[in-house]
Amino acid sequence: MIRTTLDTAALAHDLRLAVTRFNRRLRTQRVDTSVTLTHLSALSTLKRHGPMSAGELAAHERVQPPSMTRVVVALEGMGLVSRTPHATDGRQVVLELTGAARDLLAAEGQARDAWLSGRLQELSEQERAVLREAAGIMDKLAAA
Amino acid sequence: MIRTTLDTAALAHDLRLAVTRFNRRLRTQRVDTSVTLTHLSALSTLKRHGPMSAGELAAHERVQPPSMTRVVVALEGMGLVSRTPHATDGRQVVLELTGAARDLLAAEGQARDAWLSGRLQELSEQERAVLREAAGIMDKLAAA
DNA sequence: TATTGTTATACTCTATAACTATA
DNA sequence: TATAGTTATAGAGTATAACAATA
User: Fold this and answer.
1) What is the pLDDT of residues B32-72, one digit of tens each?
2) B73 CB-to-strand C distance under 7 Å
3) Which 101-140 residues of chain A touch chain B by CB within 8 A?
4) Is the CB of B103 less than 7 A from some atom of nucleic acid strand D?
5) Cα three-residue angle B143-B40-A144, rounded to 5 degrees
6) Taking burial as the number of CB atoms within 10 A of a residue's CB, which of A73, B8, B84, B87 is the most buried?
């Protein structure tokens, strides 16, 4: 019991530091500087789950509504997201990807993640399997 | 070959999103608001590797020197780090943890990582093993 | 001349509080 | 009243460019 507690405390510590540094590295690796990682994350969620309200997207992304407003304003300005009034609830705004966003996301597979893809290919198949599982677990933790 | 490329591209994508959201979650989980995660990461590195110059610490943390200057100024202001001139090279500044920082890091194991520790204990032993391995791999990637 | 560190400045990311509009 | 979203404001985190001091 104590052993487990000690283990998880140490793991929490190491995992937090690793994520901090890895995230830093990923953010600075940007090639196309117009669309940031935050923007891309929001777009990816819209692509995966389809049109949704601003509040729903904020919840998906684990940010507060005002933070999402900012992101959406920027994305609309870039012509990547459309904002239309909800059909029956006038308070809500429905967000939807534009064709330009779909094009961007399609191209992104080759360009945006190029650096990380390259590094991943240098790993062993077993290491990639670990990261694949870890990604799912981290998503679960982020939602907890 | 193509299969592997496709796999790593998809993994790069999913891993990036997972890290983005997980990192967000960790940063917002702060309890003690005086010392931020960035500060804590720098302190942990100093603890693990011992006294070093500002440039070395910046390299360890994967940030640019001016960014580290800011962090160090803040930490010195809180009495957590001392800055002393290098013995032989007058350009360098040697950074060292203070006793207060050691106390803080010792207490941190219980307080700071409490949220994450709690979540980790809800996982299976196998999932924790995956994260343990993943932390090492992510550190390697951050340094690549 | 090259290196180490700092200052000046600016942009991204995110939050809380207060406000508006609609239900 | 309660909910959805926005505006206003602020703080954390990080970068590039320019500078000073030392090697």
Assistant:
1) 667 888 998 999 999 999 999 999 999 999 999 999 999 99
2) yes
3) 109-110, 113, 116-117, 119-123, 127-128, 130-139
4) no
5) 85
6) B8
